[in-house]
Write the structure tokens for this entry.
Amino acid sequence: MAMAVEVPEYEIQDEVRVDPTRSALIVVDMQNDFVKEGGTLVVPDAQATIPEIKTLLDLARESGMKVVFTQDTHNEGDPEWEIWPEHVREGSWGWQVVDELQPLEDELVIRKVRYDAFYGTHLDHFLRVWEVDTLVLCGTVANICVHYTAASAALRWYDVIIPKDATSALDPFDLEASLRQTSFLFAGRITESGNIKVAS
């Protein structure tokens, strides 16, 4: 029997100011398999977030903020394919970052094998070297790779900001539940992409 569940309220901040010298924009898993028609694990709202993510990329690049892309990466025999349909096979079209959001040559691309972009990667190393303490996280999937990367960041005492309109989920409930947890449990700030401003 279906049960109605109400997500507790959480604050959506009207303005969030970031210091670009101490912040990084992390674009999570905006790959063809998750975003584009013909992908093996398409997230319904992911395509619609591309303009908002482009806005954030423009802000980051113009202000000198560090930019990181995560690229979910799997190969034959990966146990994750026992949980989900085959997706983002390394080297395939589905594995590639969507054309509209291509990383620049000097931007870091982190290949990850699990939901958490810190797990088994050099992400934390680069953030420490760059003296970054604030992460703006966007992309897909809100309650999976975005969420577990946000959780892992918060456990390392990074400040976490998630622009709701630049983040997508397989189901609206999943998005809302994840954002509420980020706000409530990690003291993360939830906002909209246009509300993120560079501190002067």
About this structure: The mean pLDDT is 96.
